[in-house]
Amino acid sequence: MERNFNSMTTSELLDIVISDLKSQNINTLDEFSTFIKANKDFSSINVTQAYLNLLRDELSTKHSKLPAFTVSSTVGQDLAYKYANLDHEELHLLCLDINLNLIGDYVIFVGSLDRIVAAPQRIFRKVVQENCTSFMLMHNHLSGMLTPSETDIKFTEKISNLSQALNIRFLDHFIIGNGMYYSMSEGNFIS
């Protein structure tokens, strides 16, 4: 009998997943972790669609609970905590909808130990692809120094000018390091 996983409740999907895991003698998270490492293609899982639907339901529930990004200090603190342990520089694009809800957090550039080379075209291409009405940027300084460099300031001003020309709101550019943040918007670098 073919199962219609799309019409099942989260509870029903979870029952199937648990049953499948138990049939493979997987009873703990450690055993599941070992299983995932050994079976990267998941070919031994008989109910892949149930797993995917369960994951989809969980992600949509989590997404609906994300707070709107309305206060720079809250966003800055969250980003500083989330990316505190990076061992290289990254530039992230946070795309937001009309209600300032997160559409996605995208790594736009990965740099070396101390530098990122960023092209605005990649940022705006993603902004348009994701149909963002506003966005924020975040990059980290491995040194922990939060003071924006001259390059940071010029880059932020360029992005601000381009976003105004495209009528897309550029809300902030955060620099994070050592679990702290600096807001380029609060520093009046974004008009």
UniProtKB/TrEMBL annotation:
GO molecular function: metal ion binding; metallopeptidase activity
Entry keyword annotation includes Protease: yes
Domain of life from the UniProt record: Bacteria
Transmembrane feature ranges: none
Coiled-coil boundaries: none
Family: Belongs to the UPF0758 family.
PANTHER family recorded: DNA REPAIR PROTEIN RADC (PTHR30471), UPF0758 PROTEIN YEES-RELATED (PTHR30471:SF3)
Protein name (record): MPN domain-containing protein
Native organism: Lactobacillus johnsonii
